[in-house]
Design a protein that fits this description.
Blueprint lengths: L1 E2 L2 E3 L3 E6 L5 E3 L2 E3 L3 E6 L5 E3 L2 E3 L4 E6 L5 E3 L2 E3 L5 E6 L5 E3 L2 E3 L3 E6 L5 E3 L2 E3 L3 E6 L5 E3 L2 E3 L4 E6 L5 E3 L10
Parallel strand pairs: 1-4, 2-5, 3-6, 4-7, 5-8, 6-9, 7-10, 8-11, 9-12, 10-13, 11-14, 12-15, 13-16, 14-17, 15-18, 16-19, 17-20, 18-21, 19-22
Length: 171
């Protein structure tokens, strides 16, 4: 368990490589180049963390499967993605607050993930899915985003239901 840490002004707040079965909770990461990066890491639980004011990425799963990301507050990462999944599958992203990021959640070549109960506001894009199929997207709210609430770009066989997409330039 990794909890109750304050990390600021680092290249990476947390960097995990080939690490599994960790619980990362209640940490505050602010003004790092990258907030939290997991590479080739699976079966981790990231919950109740605050990630704010990062320069490139707030929270990244890179080639990392079967993780749970829940109840995190990801704010003011203006020029970067709040949560970015790259080549990562079977992850659960639920009940995260994503405010004032370039993109709230971005999936890139990442199939079979579940995205539910998240709230994305005042981002450029709420949820952007690129080249990623077979994801389940339900009961999220992506409202008041400057460009789009939800984008499916070259992405097939995704299931979207019960989402609130309001007051975006494009749904």
């Amino acid at each position: 368990t990794i909890s109750q840490n304050h990390l600021s002004y680092n290249s990476y707040g947390f960097y995990f490589e080939s690490s599994g079965n960790n619980t990362i909770s209640g940490n505050e990461l602010a003004t790092n180049y990258n907030g939290m990066w997991l590479q080739y890491s699976g079966s981790n639980t990231l919950t109740g963390n605050t990630l704010a004011n990062h320069y490139t990425y707030a929270l990244v799963l890179d080639h990392s499967d079967s993780n749970t990301i829940s109840w995190n507050n990801i704010i003011n990462n203006y020029s970067c993605r709040g949560i970015w999944l790259q080549n990562s599958a079977n992850n659960t992203l639920n009940d995260n607050q994503l405010t004032s990021n370039y993109v709230g959640i971005w999936l890139d070549y990442s199939p079979s993930n579940t995205i539910s109960g998240n709230n994305g506001t005042n981002n450029d894009y709420g949820l952007y899915i690129y080249q990623s199929g077979d994801n389940t997207i339900h009961e999220n709210s992506f409202a008041d985003n400057y460009v789009c609430g939800l984008v499916l770009d070259y992405s097939d066989n995704n299931t979207c239901r019960g989402n609130n997409l309001t007051s975006n330039d494009y749904g």
